[in-house]
Specification:
Chain lengths: ~200, ~200
DNA sequence: CAGCATAATGCACTCAGTGCAATAGTCTGC
DNA sequence: GCAGACTATTGCACTGAGTGCATTATGCTG
């Protein structure tokens, strides 16, 4: 018998519908942002377009920024998962490079990715959040990297520095990729960036 | 004879007083933030503490965030200036390392620096702006770095990647430095971070 | 002192975000 | 199907950031 107060069993169905609705709202938001521009769009408009009240929208997303950047959190988790499944003996930078390639599998076409990236880089007010949210990937990657590092005084710092540097290279590559209109392979640019950082001059 | 409409000569005195007032307000703001916490302080309170109206405060700073982060812009310029004056033949990473050391000369004591850094890392809402603002240093450093780079297909990207990676290492080092209470040399940590990134594993 | 440019201010407004309380749904056991 | 309980949705009112505009204060030049 199920007692009424069984907090321990929050029907997974609820969670599931919640996730679906959330994803639906985010999709709608991205469409509106793409059309009107992020700064020129009010939360009110997004709510209307998604067919929910303003207040409900804030139940699903903690801020307007979140509407545009929630995808980045998922991407980070996928990258971390891919990295975790890489051969333990493999060179760290090799593993990172292939982990980042899951990005190719997430958004269907590269045109779509370009559209999103353009949006994220397009708004001054979004860029800060964008950079910060990607920096959070560091927290997922660093612990894994640390395990592969030889013993030293500052292993934790070293691991975080490596994760952060790799992410930074990806950001630089993405910005360049966006600048030239996505006409070359993003990961070719990423490799060039990493090479430049790690090569002695 | 000075004609009334001489737009070409905006008395440098004005600019000077403006800068002084601005700096004064920023100082006051930091004091209030340090005492009450950034998020718990309203712009109104900072204005009152500085003895100006809310509206005037917004004439000097474009946002509340700017009150806390305006110092970072100046730091960036000083770092870039120092980098510019480094021996042209010197290793880039060597030059970057010594350029960053101007930070030691800006804030008098390391206790003071620790206090500021703690404030910046302390607030969730400040961190994004903090990271983004430091990332802007990249725009000052990258052009200089590019000049020192050998010719290649993606020199501009490479330069930006190197600048960004160095800044990222500084951020990681600063965070670690803050975590352990400033008891070691920040630049020792920075060097360790750079070593970790650039060494093959 | 008179005139002028600029800084400071007050006021009213938009918009993001939050807390609270009322309502509408949905699922449960009976 | 129905009563009861839990949860999602919503409306409403409020705080606080940021902006535009019009008015007033200030300080400099002649």
């Amino acid at each position: 018998m199920y007692h009424r107060c069984m907090k321990a069993s929050p029907p997974p169905l609820r969670q599931q519908t919640r996730a679906v609705v959330r994803s639906l709202i985010a999709q709608t938001a991205m469409a509106v942002f793409a059309e009107k521009g992020y700064d020129e769009t009010t939360v009110e408009e997004v709510a209307a377009a998604a067919g929910v009240s303003r207040r409900t929208l804030f139940n699903y997303f903690k801020s307007k920024e979140d509407l545009a950047l929630s995808g980045l959190a998922e991407q980070g988790e996928k990258i971390a998962a891919r990295f975790a499944s890489s051969p333990p003996g493999e060179d760290i930078w090799e593993s990172l490079s292939s982990a980042f390639r899951v990005l190719e599998e997430i958004e269907t076409t590269s045109e779509r990715r370009l559209e999103i990236v353009t949006l994220l880089f397009g708004s001054e007010s979004l860029r800060a959040g964008h950079v910060e949210k990607q920096s959070r990937w560091q927290e997922l990657l660093a612990p894994q990297i640390e395990e592969r590092l030889p013993l030293s005084d500052h292993r934790s710092l070293e691991a975080r520095a490596i994760a952060a540097a790799a992410i930074t290279c990806l950001q630089a590559a993405t910005e360049e990729w966006s600048r030239i209109g996505g006409r070359v392979d993003l990961f070719h640019l990423y490799d060039a960036a990493v090479q430049a950082v790690r090569r002695a001059h």
